[in-house]
Design brief:
By secondary structure, the protein is α+β, with helices and mostly antiparallel strands. The protein has helices at about 10-15, 20-30, 50-55, 65-70, 85-95, 115-120, and strands at about 30-35, 40-45, 70, 75-80, 95-100, 105-110.
């Protein structure tokens, strides 16, 4: 499991450009980044697809914030869930990455489909 970074606090979400998640996605090379709340709970997800759609719809990208681009209520699995549950959830929703949260819904990591392939080979 790759460790997800904590890219945004609630205060930062209000003031940071949506260019920051683009940098995060590029640096992590996962195609996705989490937006977390004040207690590290996952409140949103920004994917490379979200960014492409947003660019096509927006005229004022320099004024946009991460919260304007993110998808609310991203799919998550619990820390104790098996890789099979994670893979099944990803297949069901046709996604390639899923966030891992603890019992308090705090972000603890991210699983990419490639992580599962590596674990099973």
């Amino acid at each position: 499991m790759a460790r997800a970074t904590r890219p945004y606090s609630p205060e930062e979400k209000k003031t940071r450009s949506f260019l920051d998640p683009i940098k995060e996605i590029k640096n992590k090379n996962l195609g996705v980044t989490a937006v977390v709340g004040s207690q590290d709970n996952v409140v949103g997800v920004i994917t490379d697809g979200d960014i492409r759609r947003f660019i096509l719809q927006s005229n004022k990208m320099d004024e946009c914030l991460a919260k304007d681009v993110m998808t609310s209520k991203p799919k998550c699995v619990q820390e104790e869930d098996s890789l099979q549950i994670a893979l099944s959830t990803m297949e069901n929703y046709k996604i390639t990455s899923i966030f891992v949260v603890n019992s308090k819904k705090q972000l603890t990591g991210i699983i990419h489909v490639h992580n599962i392939i590596e674990q099973t080979l």
